[in-house]
């Protein structure tokens, strides 16, 4: 059997309430849960579940199942109310044109719809938590848009000399004009500090220049295949030069297929006096579980000490473009790999 035809490995996660009751994706987990009741003709007592993407409610009273699924993106307002003197309530308004899934909503005169929940142990605490969940959702969505724009910009720069066309989102227009950081500084963790028997200029010429065969030899020694390394070229978006590497890389993790297609964008800056070199890479793995959720960022900092030596510092880390359940395992595995 050819290794090329092996598909990605599927990771099975034990389903939680959001999966067994509401059929939501396996990477959606409960962040908060509250005992409460849904107000209809009378109060249906049950539990509210809050995730990064939804507010859900489930009740099973007298064998009557009640389900409500409210996407956070559709929530327009959350207000405090009162069903009775001793029963403070929370009303969740959905924007005009939106509707929750499950039990029909209550209509409002302004075109919005609403759901009313009561019987909370601590109504004020729950309101603050729900408002924060909505705020966090919009912050997360905006961050994902920016990350998508930066990834597209990096791909555009790395492939500029290739014939392939890159679909660049409109958000990229806001990122052009000023040099952009190539890697995420905050995710980098030091993995090596030492000296090499060469200068920074010699390091560049011998290991990563267009004339060097080191990258191809290194990848071949790893038993990687289908290696395609582009040429260094200038990019308006970044200082220095960029290029793109594509190959099928051998993967040693049990979660991955034997070979995974990867794209690695590379960036280098050599100082004018050729004594300081920065070499950065951003790697996207395409055939592994949650591969689209994260990138591997790496930086080599090389400084000439004298005519025959230089200091080399290497740092690496996993940058997550969106949250996933395997985040801690991926972070540790990325540094090890």
From TrEMBL:
SMART domains referenced in this protein's UniProt entry, alphabetically: GRAM
Keyword Transmembrane helix part of the UniProt annotation: yes
Compartments in which it is found: Membrane
Chief localization: membrane
Database matches in InterPro entries: BAGP1-like, GRAM, PH-like_dom_sf, VASt
Residues covered by the VASt domain: 184-337
Keyword Transmembrane: yes
Alphabetized Gene3D superfamilies for the sequence: Pleckstrin-homology domain (PH domain)/Phosphotyrosine-binding domain (PTB)
UniProt KW keywords: Membrane, Transmembrane, Transmembrane helix
Membrane topology: Single-pass membrane protein
One GO cellular component term: membrane
The protein's name in its UniProt record: VASt domain-containing protein
Organism: Triticum turgidum subsp. durum
